[in-house]
Amino acid sequence: MCGHDQPTRSVLAEHLCATARDRGLRSARPLREGDVGMDGTKAAEDWLSPLRQHGLIPRGALAVFVVGSAARGWHNPRSDFDVYVVTRTERVSSSGGTVPVPLEPPRLSTELFYTQSRRWDVTYWLDSQIDQIFAKVSWEAFETGRVTEDTLVLREELLLGRLGSCLPLLGEAWLARCRSRLAESAFHSFAVVRSLGAADDAVEDALGQLEAGDLESATISARLAFGHVINALLESHGEYGSHLPKWRPNRFKAVAPQAISFADYWRVETMEGYDPADPAPWIEGVLTLCQDLAMRVETS
């Protein structure tokens, strides 16, 4: 195939199994100062003031923290502001809404408001719901095979993935305990193994499509495989958020993995060198790179 070593179908699968066995020694990376977009008492109060003005911080709230792009300093003038509020009792409001989650109770309360032309989305989590999420990714569940790619829904995974990079406004002691629980859980392994498994599936798809001469589909599958293996690499460094590919370049820069430079990553992400008239060399090169990167994802 055009001078490239064709990746075998078994390499990623074998690496996936090794990851599941060995991942337990790895813990989530600690929060670093550069992870937050704002800090200090004044900045926290600037965030809290609009929430208080709208009556959105319940008495006895355990924690309030900004999540998403604003917490990382990645936001732009059109970005929404996302805030999580943790309480012991369920919020009841005539102005807000609810979203379903596979927890008890099976819903989250939400509020939406605008201030200074900026949309604010506030989500209320119960402390007991967060306990349930941690139970889903316990080491007992992981080691007995009860943790699968479908174990967490998107909102649950985003919550855990954002704990290490959020901007605390209230309840820093509560948040510190939650981060310790995250580091001691199997969430890290869950995320990496899930992404490696998705990469493995996409590589197999691409190889089959190449063999069948379906080069357009093989191109898409190769791109998907690369995205998944980069996600696994970033997750191995504690950078979660694989469901939001728009932030993948920022997540990459945040950890600067040694396995691949940003320039090389970006060349593949933007399909540099792809020739629609002869796509096979590009596809094969990407699949070989996926194989190499998967083998370099840290498993201990």
TrEMBL record:
Transmembrane segments: none annotated. GO terms for molecular function: nucleotidyltransferase activity. Pfam families: NTP_transf_2 (PF01909). The keyword Membrane does not apply. Residues 63-91 form the Polymerase nucleotidyl transferase domain. InterPro entries: NT_sf, Polymerase_NTP_transf_dom. Keywords: Transferase. Gene3D superfamilies: Beta Polymerase, domain 2. This is Nucleotidyltransferase domain-containing protein.
